[in-house]
Amino acid sequence: QVQLVESGGGLVQPGGSLRLSCVASGGIFDFNAMAWYRQPSGKERELVASIGSVATNGATAYADSVKGRFTISRDDARKTVYLQMNNLKPEDTAIYYCNRRTGDWNWGQGTQVIVST
């Protein structure tokens, strides 16, 4: 069973930055495309960013709403995927989760991001 543990969230002012981390354990990390998702309060979970495996040269993709502001990366040796979030906006407020791109691993607890003055 794969376990995912997200961290790095918090309260930040608009225009600020945060770096989220997600550590995976108990599974084969290297060969999986990974992704960050978010779920604003009262809304559906949505895909934010994804990154391919090394076999696919780690190709990245982003939702239009975060393109140019967020950067996803991975460290396979640490079984960790990161999300660097810059120029944060109030509409980025959500619980952020990681999972593999297919979203079929067990979900972790997520990490709360609040963008507010």
Q: SSE layout and pairings?
A:
Elements: E1 3-7, E2 10-12, E3 18-25, E4 34-39, E5 46-51, E6 60-62, E7 70-75, E8 80-85, E9 94-100, E10 111-115
Parallel strand pairs: 2-10
Antiparallel strand pairs: 1-3, 3-8, 4-5, 4-9, 5-6, 7-8, 9-10
Flag low-confidence runs.
Answer: none
Instruction: Return Rg in Å.
Output: 13 Å
The dominant shape is globular
What fraction strand? Answer: over 45%
Give me the side-by-side strand order of the main sheet.
Answer: 2-10-9-4-5-6
Q: Count all strands and give the number.
A: 10
Distance between the termini: 40 Å
Briefly note the structural class of the backbone. Answer: mainly beta
Number of helices: 0
| Largest sheet, strands/sense/barrel | 6 strands, mixed
H/E topology pattern: EEEEEEEEEE
Mean pLDDT score, rounded?
A: 96
Helical content stands at: under 10%
